[in-house]
Amino acid sequence: MSVTFFTPAPVSAWAFSCGHENGVTAHRFATWQEASDFLNDQARDDLGTGALAVCGDDYCFAFGRMMTHAILENGGPSMQVSNHNAVRILAAIGLTAREPICGEREAENFMARVITSTPTDVHTADCLHKLREIAEFALETGRPVVWA
Ligand SMILES: [Zn+2]
After folding, report:
1. pLDDT digits over 101-118, tens only?
2. How far is the centre of ligand 1, averaged over its atoms, from the C-alpha of 23 (Å)?
3. Closest CA to 111 of 79, 137, 78
4. Res. 30: pLDDT tops 90
5. Which of 28, 70, 99, 113 has a 20 to 30 A CA-CA distance from 120?
6. Ligand 1 centroid vs 129 CA: distance in angstroms?
7. What phi and psi, each to the nearest 5 degrees, are found at residue 112?
8. This model's pTM is above 0.70
9. b/e map of 110-142 (b: 16 or more CB within 10 Å)?
10. Using CB atoms within 10 A of its CB, is residue 70 exposed (0-12), middle (13-18) or buried (19+)?
11. d(CA 148, CA 44)
12. What is the H or E stretch that residue 13 is in?
């Protein structure tokens, strides 16, 4: 189990995906409804949506169950750590972690905690440096810092 610290990014457009990592299409629809309508038309006209598949997998091409896929705006920096490390890092910035480890703080609050914390070891210092980058991005974009 791991915990990722990040700033939640808004959806900038909708495309389709079969679920494979390389399976996101080049479509860009402004709304989920437009993407969904297109997908339904495709399914009706071609008896399936496999023709939209771009992953190269024969199964996807033949049986493609394409789904709408949210394209996120630049989400900025993120940091993934083990649950064990997340507990330690959160403690270093004065937050108590309970299972499941997740939470959210306004960027200003999070930044203040990172700036005033004192790392107890090199690894924590590295993590705090990365958290500062995330907090700076959150401040710039007016988003909170989230961990989950
Ligand atoms: Zn696929």
Report:
1. 999 999 999 999 999 998
2. 5
3. 137
4. yes
5. 99
6. 37
7. -60, -40
8. no
9. bbebbeebeeeeeebeebbebbbebbbbbbebe
10. middle
11. 39
12. strand 11-17
